[in-house]
Write a structure and sequence with these properties.
Layout lengths: L5 H19 L1 H12 L3 H24 L1 H8 L3 H21 L5 H8 L7 H17 L2 H12 L5 H27 L1 H43 L2
Helix pairs in contact: 1-8, 1-9, 2-9, 2-10, 3-7, 3-8, 3-9, 5-8, 5-10
Amino acid sequence: MPMPSPSEFLQALLLVPVTLLPIINPLSGAPVFTMMAGDDPVTTRRLAWQVTLNCWFVLVGSLLVGTYVLELFGISIPIVRIGGGLLVATSGWRMLNRTDEDDVKSAVRRSQRSDLTHAEIVKRSFFPITFPLTTGPGTIAASIALGAGLPRQPTLYVLGAFVALLGATLTVAVIYLVYRNAGRLMARLGEVGTLVMMRLMAFVLLCIGIEIAWTGWAELNGIAQR
């Protein structure tokens, strides 16, 4: 099999962030991150970096290892796409219809502090900010589906894995930039702008979930008709 051309390499590189960022939607997590980090710029920077690191490991693990874990338990990729698509669509539907703050935001507000120690930052950076707020089940399922598309030939697999790592790095770089500047972003958007942005991204998320689930359903029908 020939090596990919530069255009194919670029397309594969952008596939990961283009697919995952609408699902991750770091802008929707920015208000929660701001409440967790407080007004201290040092805490904000450290927490943003720790969340970014957590997200990178989650994405890379899902991209490179997730498929083999599924094979171990006998779960097919179409089923993952359907399940992940339903989770993503459900998340988008809940965001569209939500009027009160969810449990995660309430828990963060109750535990809000601006003088978090390093141990507290490491502990709280994973739950609830990394999981389920940023890289939730839908993101993990979509990452596994992307990882399933990596070629099986050793040389091309190494190249594909390298491209996936770069794509995951680009993805978490956007997460870092958004969370690092979350306070300023929320101030610029204002209350009404934040509400409009979250509702718009919720609709996009609903559409993405339906598309992922539909792709899995079409694949299952194709397998059944063989």
